[in-house]
């Protein structure tokens, strides 16, 4: 059997192959056209084929040459940071910048272990005030400040 | 150098030196340094985060502010390298080596001052360089036709990939993925939507900000969080005096000169820029030194040379962007993105149609450098104190400002979903050893490349030989082929690896 000598490359290979295949699959409706009359699918198809080819090449390299392993994915930071971004996005028009900034601070603070809640709440309040003053009053951004519109 | 040169510079200073523009430049420098000094945040992430605040300004003011942010961020990066040995990005890695040793010996002030003075000198020289070489290059660029542009972009992307650190093949893959992301949205030629998955927010294409803030800003936060405790400067740094001694000056002025020359030239190369320049300068300084063993133990030339070189290169790398419309590295891709948002298509036309803009930007480079010197030397103490702020307070703030920036520019939840998507996407790919910088280059160039390919092939009726038959295009492709051949050769590959390890 083949032995994976470079897990990092294997990961990259799989990622590129998936992107190339997804690109081809979702672009299959696009007209390819011909070189003199390029359709909307011409350039993307070539790109996807090349991405796929690179994925295969990196995959072969991963089997042939030793290399570093993949460091374990840490779920906690990603999960909380992504959650913080999405919560902010969904709530800003409902509860306004100040409250969603506070909520976001709490969520993003949870991306670390050992969160101190009082400290975080104070930080959140400070950031909320600061961002309302700077973004709404000074820079005049069209964002609801204290409550939704 | 003719009279025009001075007239042009006068136009530039006339346009840039209004009180409004200078104050935006000043704010840019300050805020850029402020963010750039935070450990683990490099110029790319800094510019990406601060882009939104420049959107409300008129084009010249916003470019001046952006340039200020860029220089500030770079200087901030050097400060962190010297004080805590945490380079924000590749171009300050070499500054860490001797700069941090100097800081440990209590000579942090001298290192910072030499970095600032060297950068200022390099900035002055390279501004003249841009002013002198911009117009002739733009004249050449006007001879360019679609096939030539396409080949030029191929050359630019290939050299960018070769000169970047890390795996070449992965970088090529990332460029292609970036090109693909650049195509999302409505195809201008056929009106067909591509890769929009029925989401109407994607019809105009993926916005620049969610992509760069996701892949740079937020990925950096996640990576820093994983590393756990970040180093504190208080433990390692003591200030004896700020001003370098006479001996320091004597040792460093030649290094500054060499670094400036090297940086100015390397910055123009497509794919060159600050990183390559600082590495090259460090290597040169080590080679010419009478006693190379001092390097790595706090040799001031090891700070003066690379710092001058990276600043010179940072400026001359504007040349390909402003004359050919080709960003040579990720920072320039950000600048190009900002210009496009302002309604300016970078290229030779800017110089003829909007001379105030081109020369104003050139003048603002010098103004920006002068400001860095004026504000940063006195403020070093403040930056040091800022560095001591625990990361657990910093990152929620950074994240919040990133998100507000994205949302305020285009108030739609789709923007934030995209930001989160690119954060996860960028995180996964960095884990597999794929750098996101080439992807941004590809993303910016995607639509341009397709359009020029299409036009070239329409002109030639589908014959790909057009790329070889036109002399300019053929020459560019030949250079590309030589560069590719050189990297594949094992001997060169070894030296390249060695160069990046040092």
Structure description:
The complex is a heterodimer of chains A (149) and B (502). Chain A is mostly helical and 149 residues long. Helices cover 67% and strands 0% of the residues of chain A. In chain A, helix 1 packs antiparallel against helix 2 (42-64). The N and C termini of chain A lie far apart (62 Å). Chain B is mainly alpha-helical and 502 residues long. Chain B has one domain (3-501). In chain B, 76% of the residues lie in helices and 1% in strands. Chain B is built from 23 helices and 2 strands. Chain B has helices spanning 3-16, 19-36, 43-54, 59-84, 93-104, 108-141, 146-163, 168-183, 208-226, 233-236, 246-268, 274-288, 301-316, 318-324, 330-341, 348-353, 355-387, 391-409, 413-431, 437-459, 466-469, 471-488, 490-501, and strands spanning 185-186, 193-194. Chain B has a two-stranded antiparallel sheet with strand order 1-2. Chain B is globular, with a radius of gyration of 22 Å. At the A-B interface, helix 1, helix 2, helix 3 and helix 4 of A face helix 8, helix 9, helix 18, helix 19 and helix 20 of B.
């Amino acid at each position: 059997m083949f032995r994976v000598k470079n897990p990092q490359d294997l990961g990259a290979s799989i990622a590129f192959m998936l992107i190339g295949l997804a690109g081809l699959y979702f672009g299959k409706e696009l007209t390819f056209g011909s070189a003199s009359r390029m359709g909307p699918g011409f350039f993307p198809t070539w790109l996807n084929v090349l991405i796929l080819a690179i994925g295969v090449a990196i995959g072969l390299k991963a089997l042939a040459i030793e290399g570093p392993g993949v460091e374990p994915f840490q779920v906690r930071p990603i999960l909380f940071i992504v959650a913080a971004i999405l919560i902010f996005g969904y709530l800003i028009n409902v509860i306004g910048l100040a409250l969603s900034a506070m909520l976001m601070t709490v969520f993003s603070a949870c991306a670390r272990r050992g969160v101190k809640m009082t400290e975080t709440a104070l930080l959140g309040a400070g950031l909320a005030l600061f961002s309302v003053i700077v973004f709404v009053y000074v820079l005049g951004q069209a964002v609801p400040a204290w409550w939704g519109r | 150098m003719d009279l025009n040169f001075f007239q042009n510079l006068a136009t530039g200073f006339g346009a840039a030196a209004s009180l409004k523009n200078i104050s935006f430049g000043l704010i840019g420098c300050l805020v850029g340094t402020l963010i750039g000094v935070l450990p683990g945040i490099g110029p790319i992430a800094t510019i990406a985060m601060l882009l939104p605040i420049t959107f409300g300004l008129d084009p010249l003011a916003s470019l001046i502010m952006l340039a200020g942010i860029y220089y500030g961020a770079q200087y901030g990066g050097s400060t962190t390298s010297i004080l805590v040995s945490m380079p924000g990005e590749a171009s300050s890695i070499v500054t860490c080596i001797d700069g941090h040793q100097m800081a440990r010996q209590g000579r942090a002030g001298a290192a910072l001052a030499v970095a600032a003075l060297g950068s200022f000198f390099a900035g002055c020289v390279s501004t003249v360089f841009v002013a002198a070489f911009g117009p002739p290059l733009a004249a050449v660029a006007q001879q360019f036709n679609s096939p030539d542009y396409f080949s030029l972009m191929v050359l630019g992307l290939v050299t960018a990939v070769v000169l970047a650190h890390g795996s070449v093949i992965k970088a090529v893959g990332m460029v292609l993925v970036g090109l693909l992301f650049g195509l999302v949205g409505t195809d201008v030629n056929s009106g067909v939507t591509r890769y929009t998955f029925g989401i109407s927010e994607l019809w105009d294409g993926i916005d620049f900000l969610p992509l760069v803030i996701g892949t740079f800003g937020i990925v950096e936060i996640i990576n820093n969080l994983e590393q756990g405790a970040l180093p504190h400067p208080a433990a390692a740094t003591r200030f004896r005096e700020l001003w370098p001694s006479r001996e320091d000056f004597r040792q460093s002025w030649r290094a500054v000169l060499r670094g400036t020359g090297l940086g100015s030239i390397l910055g123009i190369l497509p794919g060159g820029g600050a990183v390559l320049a600082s590495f090259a300068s460090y290597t040169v300084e080590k080679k010419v030194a009478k006693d190379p063993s001092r390097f790595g133990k706090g040799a001031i030339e090891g700070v003066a040379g690379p710092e001058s070189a990276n600043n010179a290169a940072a400026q001359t790398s504007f040349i390909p962007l402003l004359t050919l419309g080709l960003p040579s590295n990720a920072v320039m891709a950000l600048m190009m993105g900002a210009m496009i948002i302002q309604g300016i298509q970078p290229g030779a036309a800017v110089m003829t149609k909007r001379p105030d803009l081109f020369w104003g930007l050139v003048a603002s480079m010098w103004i920006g450098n002068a400001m860095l010197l004026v504000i940063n030397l006195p403020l070093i103490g403040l930056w040091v104190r800022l560095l001591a702020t625990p990361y657990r307070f910093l990152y929620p703030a950074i994240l919040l400002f990133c998100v507000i920036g994205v949302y305020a520019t285009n108030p739609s939840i789709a923007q934030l979903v995209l930001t989160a998507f690119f954060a996860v996407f960028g995180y996964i790919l960095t884990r597999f050893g794929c750098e996101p910088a080439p992807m941004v280059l590809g993303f910016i160039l995607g639509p341009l490349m397709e359009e020029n390919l299409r036009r070239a092939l329409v002109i030639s009726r589908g014959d790909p030989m057009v790329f070889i038959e036109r002399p300019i295009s053929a020459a560019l492709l030949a250079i590309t082929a030589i560069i590719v051949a050189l990297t594949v050769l094992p001997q060169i590959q070894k030296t390249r690896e060695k160069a990046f390890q040092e």
